[in-house]
Every structure is written in C-alpha cells, then in structure tokens.
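G., before I forget:
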Amino acid sequence: MSVEEENVNNLEDDLWESIYHSAKEDKQDKIDKFQELRRTYPQHILLGKGGVKNVYKSYDWKTKREIALAVPHETADNSNFDEFIHEAQILGHLEHPNIIPVYDTGYDEENKPYFTMKMVEGVDLAVHLKEKKRDSEFISQVPPLLDIFKQVCLAVSYAHSKNIIHHDIKPDNILIGKFGQVFLCDWGIALRSKNDTQPPLDLRIKGTPGFLAPEVLENKDGESLDIYSLGCLLYFILSGRVPIENKSNIEDYLKELISDNSIPLKDACKYDVPESLIRIYEKCCRPLPEDRYQSVSEIIEDIDLYSNGFATKAEHASFTRALVLMYRRNRLIVNVVLASLLTLFIFTLYYLNNLNETMTKLEETVEELKKSNQQVKKEKETTEKYAARVVEEEKVSQQYLISMRNAADSHFKDRPEDMIKYLEKVRSLSPEDVQTRFKLAKLYVSVLDWRKAKNAINDLTPIIPKYSKTLSDFVEKYSEQDINEDILYKMVLDSRKMSGIFQGIYTLLTTKLLNRNYSINKKADHIKTFFKLDTGAEGLIYDHEKQSMEIKGANIRNLNYLVYLNVKNLKFTECRFGSKELGLSNLHELDLRTSKVDKFNFIVDCSEMRAIYFPESFKSIHLINSTPGCTLFMPKAQLKKNFRSFKGTIKFYEDLQE
Amino acid sequence: MNLNTRITLLEKIKSSDSDDAWEDFHSYYSGYLRAVISRFNVSGSDADDIIQKVMLVCWEKVKDFEHNGVGHFRSWLVKTAKNNTMNYMSSSSRHSKKKNKFSESQTHEVDSKFDETAEKEWRIYLSKLAWERIRSNYQENAQNSFDLLMQGLNNKEVAEKLDLKQNTVAVFKKRILEALKDEILQLDEFLN
C-alpha cells in the first residue's frame, strides 16, 4: 500500500469512526435530557400516607398546576415497589369521575418509581362523618350522604366493568373534595380478577377489618367482596360504626365474622333509620355471596328507588307498602285529588237531594202542563180555523170589495146619498181600502157634506196627497158659502176643471144644480154653458115655449141635461155622435137630418116619440122601442133589415119631396 | 432481521441454536475479525484459518457464555481472536523451516496493539455495516452522495460531481446520518 493510499484509507476510516462516536454522543445526550426531565416534581407538604406510599403536594411546571405526587415509602424495597407500580398502573387504566386521574409515572434520579395525580383538597369520609351527630335530626343529612355513597358505588361499578376489584373500600379511602367531589382512592391492593397472575402472598387476605367479606377465608375473590364492603360502608355512614367491631388483628375479626355477631343496623342507630335502607345494607352483607346483590349497579338502582320514594328491590315490598310510598311521593297531588273527590261527592249528595224535591214538583207541573197543553192545542185549532177563515174572508172580501165598488157605480148612478150609505158600509167592512175612501170623499163633496168631506180628505191626505189637495182646495173654497144656484154653478164650472178622476163630482154637482128649482132661463143658460163645454157645440138654440132645442155642431156624448129642460123636439144640426148610447126619453121629435150618425145607438126609449128624421147615411141601428104612433123618415136607401120589426110608419124623403 | 427486540445475537444463539443464528453470527463477526486482523497485515488464507479457528472456539464456548453487560462478548471475542492470531503467527514460524512469515516485531505489534485496533475497527466496521444495511432505503442520488462524502469530498464537490444542488446534498447527508446513527446504536447493542 502506498503512502497515499494509506492516507486516503485512514481518512475514510476516520470518517466512519467519527460517525460512530457521534452516534454514541447523541445517545448520551438523550439520556441526559431524559434525566433532566425526570426531576420535575418537587415534594412539598405531606398530604397523606398510604400502605406503601406517601403522597405529597407538588407542582407541575409544564402545565402550571398543583398536583399530588405519590412516592413509595422510604422504607420500601423492591417488592413494595411492585405494589406501588401496580397501583399506578391500575389507576392509570381507570378513567371515571369518582376515581382520581393519574397524570404521569416514571422513575426519579434514584430510580424510585413515582406517579402524579390530580390534587384534591378535602378530607376523607371518616373525618367528614366524625363531625356528624347521629341524633334524631340526622335523618335530614342522610340524602347528601347517600349521594356520596352512590358515587362510591359508581366508581366501584366502573372498576368492576374493567374487571378490577378494589378490595379495600372504607371511609378512610374515600376522599371528599372541598366542593363536594367524591373520590375512591387507594387502589393498591386492587386486583384484576381472573386475568391476574399469581398475586403476592399476603394480598389475598389483605383488606381492612370491619369491611372485609367472610369468603376471603376461603380464598374466594370477586365483586362480592366489594359489595360486602359497600354494605359495611353504608352501615358506617348511617350509624357511625361498623357491623362487627374492629378487633386488633384480622384473625380475631374473622372469628367474629364467621359467627355473625353483627349488631343490627336498627339498634345501632339512635334515630329512626328508614326501613328501605336497612334492607339495602342487609342485602349487601349477607353471609353468602349468592344472597347479596349480584352487581353494584343493582345497589345503585335500589338507592335511587329509595331516594325517589319508591320501594327498593331489597325489601320485597308488599302492596300496601308500595301504596304508602306512592302516597308519600305524590303527597300533594293525592291530597288534591282526594279533596276534590270529596267535594265532588258532597256536591253530588246535595245535588241528588235537590233532585228529589224537584222531582215531585216536576210531577205536579207535568200534570198542569198536560192540561194547558190540551188547551193550547184547542186554542191553536180554533185560531187556525179562524185564521183560515179570515184568510178566506180576506180573499172573499177583497173580491167582494171590488165588485161592491163597481156595483155601486152602476147601481146608484143618480143617487149619491144611497151610494154614500152603501160605500160607507163597504168602508166599514174594509176600512183600509183607499179606493172606497176616495170615492166617498168625492161623494161627500158632491153632496156638499163638508164635515164628512173634510174628514175623509184628511184621512186620505197622507196617502194620495195630490188628489186630496185638489179636493181640499175645492172644499175650502166653497164650504163656508151658502148654497145657491150661482154658487153651485161656479162649483160645477170649477169641478169641471179638475182632472178626469173627479168627473163624478162634476156630474153630480151638475145634477144637483139642475135639479134645483130656479128660473128656467137661468137654467137654460147654465145648461147651454155645460153643453157647450161638454160637447163643444157651436150653437144652442132653446125655445122654452115650443119646448124645442136645436144643437149645432156638437160632439154629442150625452144628453142628460135635456131632461131638465123638458125638451120635446130635438134637432141636431151637423152634430157628431160618439158610440155611447144616448138616453132619450120623453122626446116627441128627433131631427138628425144634418148630422152625421154612424151608429144609431142612442135611441133607447121612444114611447112618446112621434117622428124621427134620419140623416142621409147611417150605419147600424140600435134597438128602437117602437110605438105605433111613431113615424120614421129616412132615405129610401137606408131601409134596413132592422126596421122590419118596426111597428110604426116609415116614410121616405124622396117621396115627400114630390 | 429485526433488531428491535432487545435480545442480543448471543442470547439468540443461546436460546435457539438454529442454523440461521449461526450463519448470522458467522457473517457478522467473521467480517469484523477479518478487518481487524488485516490491520496487522494478515490476510488471505492465513486470515481464513485464524477466523475459522476462532469461530470453532466460539461455537464450543458460546453456550456457557454469560452475558454480563455491554461489550462483554465482543471483548472476549477479541481476546480469543488475539490469542489465536498470536498462536497462529508463532506456530507458523515454528513449523515452517523457511523464514518466519511473521516477524517477531509483527507478533509484538499484534500483542500490544490488538485491543486498541480491535476497538477502532469495531467502530469503523459497525458504521460501515450500518450503512450497508440501510443504504437501500435511499434513492441512488442519496446513496452516491453519501459514498462520495465518505470518500472525503465536501458538499460542494459532491454536488458538482453528481450534478446536484449543494443544498440537496446537505439534506441527504443530514437524513442519512440520523438514520445511520440510530442503526449503529442498535447494531452496537445487538452485536456487542
């Protein structure tokens, strides 16, 4: 090997060697650092001593909080280390609100193990209970203590679910925090049941006298041990002592245990301890494990039942007892219900009583009712009939009324007084009929009965104001005046001016006037005026001595007035006739030669007729009452069939002119 | 082979005595011994002979060997190897009528410096072995970089030679060194 090569090799070798050294250095660094990490936990004041450990108050600089540090006794050796580590491991494995959490474990610089856990300020249960006096008022303090007991049970139940038996449940191992937290501590002799390898010798009969179950003598293990201890704990809480008094050593204690020299809980308590709780304790501490609760959760269940006022499973409650408890639980509601039931009952009785009385009253009234019912029925019948009849009559009377009114017009044509009487009767039958009343009003005016007229008009004013006004004006004008022909004449003329509906008045007043006895010349004048007004006659020539009237150029509708003038000879010159019948009587001579007559309707009564001079042309001819003494003068051409029955003489103008 | 269990190879041999264990044993230690011996210019068939003999001795005596701490086995192995080497050296000189293959000064050197050399060689051997074991975990560039570095080049030179960035080379170096140191420590515990 050349020197160069050797140098190169040496260089490389050195490089490799340096890596090795570097590796070793790093390792040492880590170890040192780890060593440093170990020394984080100072030991402050001593909080407590356990079987193999001391617990100090400490401080964790990393999380900046107070913690508790557990280290083995100074006198502890390796075998006790095992127990210490064992507890740390078990505690680390469990996570429950009632079990103190472990934060850290490790070895210190002297290779002694330690572990840190949550720091809890408080006292253990033994101290906590010491202050309590178990007098009659103690019962009120039981519920919070039961709550503590329940929380211990919860921790144990949880541990059992992880197959860990505590083995050392007692008041000294229960920590009550300042703010009411409950922790089950000292899991040093807790064991994994079934899974554990051979336990160290002594541990199997380790426990605390007073809380130790009898089957440990037979090397039995299991949850029943803890359950027994819990029972003793309950006993202790309630009475302040253990079932079997502490003996100085375990052997003596176990002797007592076998012979079951326990003092009943009832006697141990100076106050009235609830029956249910006694039963729970007894069920926890039966000599044989099979007779006890089979799991801690059952204990919790019964505690809850008791706390809520129900019957516990331990006491095998009878029906009555369950009922009593139910009452206690729901005192308020039960009382309210009972009270209301009672009131209801009372009211019912009262009501029933009332009922009886009213029953008898009812029966009486029923009878009466029956009677009045029948009566009512009858009345109803009659009323119905009556009503029916009335309706009938109504119908009848309506028609009757109308026909009566109509009849009145024709029947009492020239007899206003009779018509009045008649209509008054009609009015009395149906007073509300306006037509009747109106007619009557007009009639009263016509007959100058001012009083009745005024009354009638007043009645009618609200119904037919316009017509009533017309009437009342008329009445007012003439009612104060004396009646003479001049006044009447005026009245006639006035009434003529009224509307057509008042024509009746005009007619009647005219009649009244013309019936009066006054100078014939005046009368004739009057008639002339009327006639002219009526017919539009151009001329009216009246000869009183000859009893003849010549009417010229009129529209003849009626010839009423002629009666008053006692006309015997009537001559129509260039008159026109309406289709109405014109009543003519007492005429001797009728001259129609220059008139235009289409229909010859107007000759009704010709008993005194001597001569009728027919016009040039006329059409139909009405009935002519013939008298033998009457001569008819007509153009030849006008001879009609109707004249065949005529018994008088017929002469023709053509013949005469010859 | 998984080194994570804290059993040493020795314990393994003692407990199982399988052929696999022996093979491992042979491969690990013979290589080491060969390296040590070669420092004293003993090589080739001579080395083979010595090593073979040492292995035989191990095989006989390993069962009775009580492991008493770190490095105990190896020092025994070294001692055995030394003795055997010295015996071989001296015997060969005795038996051959030719000149001594091995001079007296050589033997003396072996005597005085064997332990020291063995120690140094152990470190080197272990480091190299560790590298051999873990190199396949890295990409070719990384492997090449490290090889070159171990030839004495610096980062810059390696980067130039392999056409890499200097930064990359630095990263490779760092990563590999970390793993390498871990492996060395483990091997040390396993084989020592």
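The two ends of chain A are 210 Å apart (CA to CA). The first helix of chain A runs from residue 3 to 38.

More on Monday.
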